[in-house]
Amino acid sequence: MPALFSDLPSLGALRVFEVVARHLNFRLAAAELGVTQAAVAQQIRGLERALEVRLFERLPRGLALTDAGRGYSETVRTAMGMLNEATRRLRPAPSHITVSVTPTFAAKWLIPRLGGLAERHPTLDVRILATDRLSHFHTDGVDLAVRYGRPPFGPGLEQALLMASDIIAVASPSLVAALGPPEDFASLERYVALSDAHDWWPSYRAQVYPGHPAVCARSVQFNQTSLAIDAAIGGQGIALAERAFVAQDIDAERLVQVAESHLRPDKAFYLVWPRKGRETQLLQWVIDWLRSDAGDSKTTG
């Protein structure tokens, strides 16, 4: 008598297939799985050979599921979800909550406030996953994420507004004293524009100095907002940053807001968590605390 499930591909290959089918991109799938793009492509080729079915069409700009691949992906995703749920029920509920945030959000907003959470809930074990990569809740074991954007953030996800986006211009007090406040376009040009991946400067200059070039004469680009803020504290120029990220530096007089004008993007910070995730008291504690502290920061920022 043949062994049960002897015709099934390996679970690892099916997991890779599910991720690739979701992203339709080998590079993004490799980033989520933490492997090389070549390893992902090799797994998919091996799966197609084993099944003797083409699952993807290779296109000049990515992938597309074949009809067979589309139907198979829906079944595999359902089966993976059932396996994940069955495994979760076998394990005792963990006593920790993993929160995914960007490095800047962690360094400039979350970490300075963690002491307050520990005082309110001393038995709570919070784990911070600080990464610029978009974390996957099930694969990375994430319970709660802070995401910047506009809802909805994906199927099967709950969301709650954490705080609005408010971009202000800041510099060190010593630099402003040396160069003078940037009250007009000519005085602004005396400063180096410290920019990050959001690149707020063109929008800011168009709003505050209409009719003048949107491109800064002198600028330094950073891949993270926290680096631009640190450069501003060090007297390197003017940074555009979230008010919430620089509020404590302004209170400590490490930075000053150099102009009353500010940007209000149509995006905001949201708390996001799986609709079918762990609905524990621990998770609710963290959500309530984050929203409460964000509300407090609005009154002090």
TrEMBL record:
Pfam families for the chain: HTH_1, LysR_substrate
Entry keyword Mitochondrion: no
Keywords from the UniProt entry: DNA-binding, Transcription, Transcription regulation
Start and end residues of each HTH lysR-type domain: 9-66
Keyword Membrane among UniProt keywords: no
Similarity-based family: Belongs to the LysR transcriptional regulatory family.
Protein name: LysR family transcriptional regulator
